[in-house]
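Saturday, quiet lab. Running sequence design on the structure tokens for the scaffold JK sent over.
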């Protein structure tokens, strides 16, 4: 009987060949090389470590940014819109000279007349790099002030300042030393400041201020500030705590600070147009208020409203408060090196008025103009 031949193998073609991707084996899960899996030690430690990593992942997913410091929580109102530390009286002339932009080196001569707060002559010198800032100021009445700031690393900045005031008929004189450390995180800022610290009177004396501001959401930041003061002469220590909050909208910012001793300060800033800003500040003191550490109760309140207008070559600021004061300041650039500033203030309650006029000249040579096109300017840690 003849053998039955075996069936011939079907020829290979595109219909009976399995695709390559259908026979691949599943890949193992990807490993985060930036955070290798920790070695197991004990159940409690592993649970805490896993919780910490989970919290950090959720924290990064929020996309939070650094909120700044508690001291600058209302900087848009106090430093940009209001006339704080900008108004003056009498006549003033300034001559500023810049020698280089990296390292930054500048000197300034200021002459004043008709002012009870400004010295007749002031000399100022400034030197700075990306990591160091040195500044010194000497007045004709022998008043001296200096500060030194250093950026220890991209997140930690050390600040120090010294002020020496001689005794005169209007001032008892004195000296003050301030030391400050600021740590800037991705979404928080921690600061520690000490004023006149000393251990020469049988213990630690001086004033110590610690603050912490944390971004909770992309718009909301919360923080607190603690003050501990221990004067010399056997006086007992005093302490105070304040809570701070800041909310940032699309074109407005609201901030508030609450003192546990009975003080409340609120600020509101809004950008009306590209060149117009406005701000309002309300300060309430009750049940001891902000003067509780000074020993005297105070119950009072004040409100200030201000506006800022930016023109092509000038800036105009104006403000009015609930105590009857009206002030304005006009800063105008006459020519690129010449700037004129006019300041005025009227107090209706005290029936007093102040006027101020200042001229500032920026002197810079052709070499400095060439440096601006070739060298990146220094960014000192102010």
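Result came back. Writing it out in full:
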């Amino acid at each position: 009987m003849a053998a039955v031949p075996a069936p011939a193998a079907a020829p290979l073609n595109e219909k009976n060949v399995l695709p390559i991707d259908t026979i691949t084996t599943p890949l193992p899960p990807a490993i985060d090389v930036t955070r290798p899996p920790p070695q197991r030690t004990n159940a409690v430690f592993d649970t805490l470590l896993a919780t910490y990593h989970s919290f950090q992942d959720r924290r990064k997913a929020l996309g939070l940014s650094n909120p700044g410091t508690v001291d600058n929580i209302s900087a848009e109102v106090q430093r940009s819109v209001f006339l704080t530390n900008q108004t003056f009286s009498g006549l003033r002339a300034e001559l500023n000279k810049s020698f280089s932009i990296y390292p930054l080196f500048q000197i300034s001569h200021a002459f004043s007349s008709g002012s009870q707060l400004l010295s007749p002559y002031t000399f100022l010198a400034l030197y700075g790099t990306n990591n160091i800032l040195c500044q010194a100021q000497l007045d004709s009445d022998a008043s001296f002030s200096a500060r030194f700031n250093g950026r220890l690393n991209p997140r930690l900045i050390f600040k120090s300042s010294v002020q020496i005031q001689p005794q005169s008929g209007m001032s008892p004189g004195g000296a003050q030393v301030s030391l400050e450390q600021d740590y800037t995180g991705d979404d928080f800022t921690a600061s520690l400041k000490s004023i006149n610290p000393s251990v020469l009177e049988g213990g630690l004396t001086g004033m110590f201020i610690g603050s912490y501001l944390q971004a909770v959401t992309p718009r909301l930041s919360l923080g607190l500030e603690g003050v501990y003061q221990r004067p010399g002469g056997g006086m007992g220590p005093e302490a105070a705590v304040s809570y701070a909050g800041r909310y940032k909208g699309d074109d407005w910012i609201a901030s508030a600070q609450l003192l546990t001793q009975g003080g409340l300060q609120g600020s509101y800033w809004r950008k009306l147009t590209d060149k117009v800003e406005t701000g309002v500040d309300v300060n309430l003191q009750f049940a001891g208020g902000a003067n509780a550490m000074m020993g005297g109760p105070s119950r009072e309140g004040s409100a200030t409203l201000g506006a800022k207008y930016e023109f092509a070559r000038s800036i105009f600021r104006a403000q009015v408060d609930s105590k009857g004061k009206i002030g304005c300041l006009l800063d105008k650039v006459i020519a690129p090196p010449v700037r004129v500033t006019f300041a005025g203030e009227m107090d209706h309650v005290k029936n007093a008025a102040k006027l101020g006029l200042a001229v500032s000249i920026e002197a810079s040579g052709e070499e400095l103009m060439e440096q601006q096109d070739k060298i990146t300017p220094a960014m000192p840690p102010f």
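Notes for JK: The longest strand covers residues 90-101. The helical segments are 43-61, 75-81, 366-374. Ask whether to fix the surface positions before the next round.
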